[in-house]
Amino acid sequence: MKNDRRVYIVSGGVTKFAKAHPEMDFRLMVKKAFDYAMADVPSLSKKDIDRSRISYFSDHFTRQLKAASMVQDYLGLNPKDSRRIEWGGATGGQCIQAGWETIASGRSDVCLVAGFETMSRVETWKGNEFIALASDTNFDYPVGGFYTGYYALMVQRHIYEFLRKTRFYNIKDEKTAQRVATKEAMRIMAMVSVKNHTNALHNPYAQYPAKATLKSSLKGEMIAYPLNRPSICAMSDGAAVLILASEDVAYKYTDNPVLIKGVGCGTDTMRLADRPREHVPLLPWENEKDYENLDYPGVHSFRAGRTAALEAYQHAGITNPKKELSFIELHDAYASSEIQTYEDLGLCRYGEGYDFVEQGHPFLKNMDYGFELKDKGTIPVNPSGGLIACGHPVGATGIMQGVFAFWQLQNSIKKHFGSEKLQIKDAKRGLIHSHAGTGSSVTVSVLEAARRG
Amino acid sequence: MKEIKRSGAAIFSSKDGGENLVIAYPYKIDYIHSYAEDSEFFLGLAKGKLLGSACKKCNLKYGTPRGHCMRCGEETRWMELPLEGRVHSWTTCYFGSEEFLKETPFNLVLVEFQGVNTPFLSRLANAKTQDIYIGMKVKAQFRKNPKYSVSDVYFVPAPEPGRLAHEQRRR
After folding, report:
1. B123 → closest Cβ in A129, A143, A278
2. Sheet containing B51-55: which strands, arranged edge to edge?
3. Mind listing the domains of chain A with CATH numbers?
4. N or C: which end of chain B has fewer CB within 10 A?
5. What tens digit of pLDDT does each residue of B98-117 get?
6. How far is it, in rounded angstroms, from Cα A189 to Cα A184?
7. Most B-contacting residue of A28, A124, A140, A143 (CB-CB within 10 A), to test interface
8. Average pLDDT along chain A
9. Which residues have CB under 8 Å from A337's CB, separation 6+?
């Protein structure tokens, strides 16, 4: 990534995520998010936008091929360059990076990044089927294709590697030890669920804000053991947009843009079964010795996430993410994958994700969650409420994270949320993480406040 | 928003007095799906054989076959897998995709085989959630009337003489 031009975010907009928006189709949803973003930078006019990158995940949900072209059309951006971006659950994150590349390469000065999904067009169980078609349809899908099932398989192994073998190593009976470890993990996943639902109480765009407690979260309906409903994101209708601009023009439109400081991307096998058993790609402060007996990534960790983080940190010049980042918006489709992702991103070592939650690091300092936390809020994760509480209209999700992170770094949460409860004081740098499949594709982008004057 | 009518279509009235019409739109497809280079595996199931594959060059052994090696790119050869293995990870699904809803609850397992580098995703029948654990010994069973689907094979608990063997480590 030599000689790339600096790329800034100058504006953003997002629709309220909802189970269904029968009053708006995908074109109108994007239009509303777009108009909001345009209104926030009055000096920018539509003619200044020279290209667009538009993302949605599934033609099955939309039942409209070339839906991105219809968005381009509805926004009145024809005949300018545009393309559709699709990358499973990481569609939104990839779309932001596609916009970044377009400007960094010198091909564009102002690029619209827009994403949407209309998942309400089918019932939930049909939606599960469409999503499961994003697994190998020869070997995985026909066994009982269900993404929550796949993530349950992954977290069960994670619990085995990192709780059963550590906290409960002294329990001799294997089955008992595994049961106790899983119960412990469920309690810790419930803490993550409480965090995200509670944070979302102050986010007017969130689909499922809730006054959740550990007890209510643990009582939720079991979907795929050990994952229950409160620890899983829902399907949604929604749209989100960001407007990106080059270093040459960004400050013409706002004195408070946000710099896309680093981008990274990683991949892994489509089938869980194919995941290699090798060594951890190390972050600067980790040692081979830390992971001597760990087969990596196996099915318990996300090598794509680690790879994306390594690249983004290097690009952004970050050596200690926990110290150098003010907050993180990550792809918590499941409370389990939020915990697994802390480790991929190097917020703690592999195996320390559960301790990281219990100690309180990813919580917000000024929020009451109903339990005591020792090191509360050292690096808030999903201050917006994440996917678990905001919803997951796939093609919009990664861009939604970008919009919330942009507002955090602009220090404009109060303006956009109507309350500054979720504003992280003096937020300087944030990270957004977008994740697809069973961890087959991940993007990580590092954003930095760049206010002038 | 209030739903005021449903008879093949529904009309939702919105706050401003407008109406949004929602219709049902059926969509059915029969795909002509070739298993192509994976065909041998599915033909094997019908004969009571569970096939993996091994790289002709580096000999990496796949518990779920693939035509070419992900490590060195060489072609693989077919290889019969043992019909007994151990649970590498597992879950019980209480909800799922429309196609499998009527089968819930069902158990999913990743099965690992001795001397094979990667596991295989399957169902575990005849086992209750409280009885399943990582390391549990399981054996393959084959559907009597094959449907030429990966679900022609499934696993059941296998008797385990002596103490519990812990997971097999492989690299």
Report:
1. A143
2. B61-62, B51-55, B76-80
3. 146-232+262-449 (3.40.47.10)
4. C
5. 999 999 999 999 999 999 99
6. 9
7. A143
8. 97
9. A151, A154, A155, A302, A331, A435, A439
Average pLDDT over residues B35-59: 98
Q: Residues of B with CB below 8 A from A272's CB?
A: 110, 121
Q: Which residue has the tokens 């009309």?
A: B11
pLDDT tens for A339-390 read 999 999 999 999 999 999 999 999 999 999 999 999 999 999 999 999 999 9
Q: At what angle do helices A174-200 and A147-159 cross, to 10 degrees?
A: 120
Partner-chain contact A174 B164, CB within 8 Å:
yes
Q: Which of residues 249-288 of A touch B (CB under 8 A)?
A: 269, 271-278
The answer on pLDDT for B165 being more than 70 is no
Q: How many angstroms separate the CA atoms of A244 and A100, rounded?
A: 7
Residue B169 DSSP label: P
- pLDDT range class, residue A425, cuts 50, 70, 90: very high
CB contact set of B128 (below 8 Å; sequence gap of 6+): none
Structure tokens at B45: 């199931």
CA dist A19 → A120, A121, A124, A197, A265 (Å):
6, 10, 10, 16, 30
Handedness of CA A132, A386, A90, B22 (dihedral sign): positive
Structure tokens at A241: 């947009």
pLDDT at A300: 98
DSSP letter (8 states) at residue A105: T
What are the DSSP E strand ranges found in chain B? 2-6, 9-13, 19-23, 51-55, 61-62, 76-80, 84-93, 106-112, 120-124, 137-142, 153-157
Cβ pair A400, A14 in contact under 8 A: yes
Residue B167 has pLDDT above 50, yes or no: no
Reported ipTM: 0.96
A83-92, A284-293, A390-399, range with the lowest pLDDT: A284-293
B115 neighbors B103 (Cβ within 8 angstroms)? no
Whether A292 and B169 have beta carbons less than 8 Å apart is answered as no
**Residues in B touching A152 (Cβ below 8 Å):** 91, 93, 108
Delimit the domains of chain B by residue range.
36-157
Kindly determine whether residue A128 and residue B98, on different chains, have CB atoms separated by under 8 Å: yes
Please choose, from the candidates A227, A231, A229, the residue with its C-alpha nearest in 3D space to the C-alpha of residue A149: A227
**Beta-carbon pairs below 8 A across chains A and B:** 148
Structure tokens at B33: 């799906």
* Residue A428 Cα distances to A257, A285, A341, angstroms: 12, 22, 22
Nearest chain A Cα distance for residue B133, angstroms? 6
Residue A4, C-beta contacts closer than 8 angstroms, at least 6 positions apart: A104, A105
Cα–Cα distance for residue pair B150/A135, rounded to 1 Å? 13
With pLDDT > 70 as the criterion, what percentage of chain A qualifies?
99
Identify the CA nearest to A9 among candidates A206, A185, A260, A204: A260
pLDDT of A242 strictly over 60? yes
Residue A273 has its nearest CB partner, among B38, B121, B135, at B121
- CA distance readout (Å), A92 to A176, A395, B48: 42, 5, 44
